[in-house]
Amino acid sequence: MGNVLVWMVWLMAAAACLGTGLRVVTASNPFVSALSLIGNLASLAVLYLLASGEFVAAAQVLVYAGAVMVMFLFVIAYLGGRADAPWAGGTRAIQTASVVTAAALLAVTLVALMLDAGGRLSDEADVDRAFGSPAEMGRLFLTDHLLAFEITSIVLLVAAVGGVVLGMRSEAEALADAQELADAERASS
Amino acid sequence: MVFGSWVCLLAPLAGFLAILAAGSRLTRSQAGIVSTGSVFVGFAGAVVAFVDAWGRDADERGELTTAWTWLKAGEFQVGLELLIDPLSLVMMLVVTGVGGLIVLYSVGYMAGDDEERRYFAYMAFFVFSMLLLVQGGNLLVLLVGWGLVGLASYLLIGFHHERASAVAAAKKAFVVNALGDAIMALGFFLAIAKVGSLDFGVVFEAAESGELSDTVVALVALGLLGGAVAKSAQIPFHTWLPDAMEGPTPVSALIHAATMVTAGVYLICRTHPVFEAAPDVQALAAVLGLITLLVAGVVALVQWDLKRVIAYSTMSQIGYMFVGAGVGAYGFAMFHLVTHAFFKALLFLAAGIVIHHLAGEQDIRRMGGLRRALPTTNLTFLIGTLALVGIPPLAGFWSKDAILASALDEGGALGWILYVGGLLGAFLTGLYSLRLYLRVFHGEPAAEPAQAHGHEAHRGEGPRSMTLPVLVLAAGSVVVGLLNIPGVWHPFEDWLEPVAESLVHPSTGEEWLSSALAVGLGGLGALLAWRAFQAGRELVPDGAVRRTLEHKLWFDELYDTVFSRPAQTVAVALRDRFETPVVQGGLDEVAEGTLRGAAATSSAQSGLLRTYALAITISVSILALVFLVVR
Amino acid sequence: MMGPGVPWYLAVSAMLFSIGVAGVLLRRSPLIVLLSLEIMLNSANLAFVGFSRLFGEMDGQVFALAVMAVAAAEVCVGLGLIVAMARRNLILDVDRLTELRG
């Protein structure tokens, strides 16, 4: 009985995942795409939970869905009409090539999976309750994977700086903005 | 003895390096002093070595000293060796002694030239190279010295490099010498292959003992002879010497009279065991000497250039030395080398004073009556001329006649031909030398000579630095011959006996007979020249003969047609057919191909993000497929 | 393990990945391209977690977390670019933004 329930939840989450994924790629309204992605992230979090990755699931929802997607939505709101995304681009040849390539990649991977399905991929290890817990995660981050931890923090720093730099206004722009503000003030006073 | 020899060798090298290193920090005259000083220091070293050797017993006078092992290739090994023995001591004394006087003379002669430092550096370098050649303890060191003197000769002939003729002459000298060097090197390769060593002792033993086949020995000897012939300007490799007169007069005196051109004679005497083991080649040496002797003598009869006459005279006298060495009279050949060094250098230096006085004029048709303007030079030049002709008791008399007597003693067909030819040569010598002397110093002065290139008119005899060496050489020309008087005393012969034992021993009677004949013929030639001069006519009348002689028997033209032109044609053809299209074209093709390839490749960078991403994705899929298949 | 085995997770991951690839290659708006990139990154995360479960080691999850952090950084910069482009009134069309050429 428990197993059946798990199976059902899993299938639903997987379907939602793939469905929203398709929606992201095919929607013409970027807002719809962004929301679909949020849905995708949520279903993925469910899948993580079912695979005993509790901390990762939590982080997914908090960081990805909570922060990254919000950033996306902010930008889409800022862009307004300019964000409208026409459908496909490129020549016919490139379009067909793209679809074919994606399909080929999928085919190769599935074949690989099926070939080995009876072998090594089925031997799951037994895990205890501590598997997937924050404590275990923290321990690993601070011992075996300390380097990855540090480098990640540097990457984040660099991205933050990059974001600031990209957002800076040039001299001319700053002047124009100040001018606009002054005009608005005079107009309203 | 060893110490003295090292000083002798290294002093000129030090002088050369000093001038090179100091550059323009030395004034021009200081460079001259350094150069002269270094050569005289070398002379002092040679004297010290000589005195030491003299004090020893005859069989202890040879010493081989090694600086370090220079080359090792498998079994073959060569050291940087010097051989100090009577033969090399003689050469050392001559080179540094006469050389020192000539460099001193240059201080006066070259004063005012813009590039004096270069000149003096080259002179010191030359002296060093020549010493290396004569002190070489094995064939390889000798070869190094050989090559270096060739280089020094090239540099000094072409000293006035702004003159195209000088540059051409330098090139000609170098090419002909290189030809001789190549032949010699081939001989050396054969020696290495068959004997396994280039040490004198080893090679000589192998040649004498008969373990080498006759052909091999003959070939090695031929190689040596080829080099000697080219360096000493004997026929057929003689064409470079007259042209070499383009160099400054002291250069002609030092390199092309006293020392470098005599290196061939030295070589034959040094390697005489090889020649003795190949008697045909030795005979060939004598024959070539004879031919040169005669050819040079007749050609000298029609030359108008002061220095060229003396050059042909040099060629002729070296022919005598070759004859001497060819019949095995090594002692006499070397003796003639020594006496010749004195009076030939004397003649050149005196000629230099004349040229200097006339502001560069060298055509004897424009000279005359100079005995009034240059009385001392008149006397010294006369002494030199008489020594050359072989009038007793001057130097040339004793040495030349000794060679003639040796030829007589040799006997056989060859001996007789050499003897008669040598006597004929003495006659010719009388003719051309007196013609030269009379033309220059006697008679009426020609019209004012044209202002030629070179230094300002140094009217008169010139500075002390020029006149002193000339006087010393004149004294030497008088006295040096007395080192070897047949039947009375022969220290020179005895000195060289242990090293180069003569094959022939002319009797006193033979010697005096030859002397009488030679003097007689020489005097006859002089007389005829005098008569012709009085009558105001030339010795060789106009006509085909004269024209042939004027063109030096068409040798230059022959070589030009047979060697130069074809070589040039081949070179041009190669350039047009091969070098330009294939090599150059190939390079151009490669360059262009790269550019085209780059252009083609860059067209793939379209700037479209999409295409880049597609390319990446396709590659990934292919890789995934490959992994799948392989694993 | 209850529920589907690891190969199922991997299959979903593969399908999600190819959807993302198709999106990156086919869409014109840089914004949508970025979103598709996010899908690809998430699919990789899913594969990480799946394998982590298979081997019983938590290293896969650790790296999934690192991937998430990096993805966040990348989105930050990417959106910054898009905003900068919009401010300079450039058309947000991948086919028109072609100055990165050879």
According to DSSP, the number of beta strands of chain C is 0
Largest interface: A-C, 93 and 75 residues
Please identify, by name, the CATH architecture of chain C: Orthogonal Bundle
N-to-C order of helices and strands of chain C: HHH
CATH topology of chain C: Helix Hairpins
Please tell me about this protein's structure.
The complex is a heterotrimer of chains A (189), B (631) and C (102). Chain A has 189 residues and is mainly alpha-helical. Among the domains of chain A are: 85 residues, NADH-ubiquinone/plastoquinone oxidoreductase chain 6, subunit NuoJ (Four Helix Bundle (Hemerythrin (Met), subunit A), Up-down Bundle); 45 residues, no CATH class. Helices cover 77% and strands 0% of the residues of chain A. Chain A has seven helices and no strands. In chain A, α1 runs antiparallel to α2. Chain B is mostly helical. Among the domains of chain B are: 229 residues, no CATH class; 72 residues, no CATH class. In chain B, 73% of the residues lie in helices and 3% in strands. Chain B has 25 helices and two strands. A two-stranded antiparallel ribbon of chain B has the order 1-2. In chain B, a hairpin with a 2-residue loop joins β1 and β2. The termini of chain B are far apart. Chain C has 102 residues and is mostly helical. In chain C, α1 packs antiparallel against α2 and α2 packs antiparallel against α3. The longest helix of chain C has 29 residues. The radius of gyration of chain C is 17 Å and the shape is elongated. Chains in contact: A-B, A-C, B-C. At the A-C interface, α1, α2, α3, α4 and α5 of A face α1, α2 and α3 of C.
Describe the structure concisely for a colleague.
The complex is a heterotrimer of chains A (about 190), B (about 625) and C (about 100). Chain B is mainly α and about 625 residues long.
Question: Descriptors for this entry?
Answer:
heterotrimer; A: mainly alpha; Four Helix Bundle (Hemerythrin (Met), subunit A); extended; B: 631 residues; mainly alpha; 73% helix
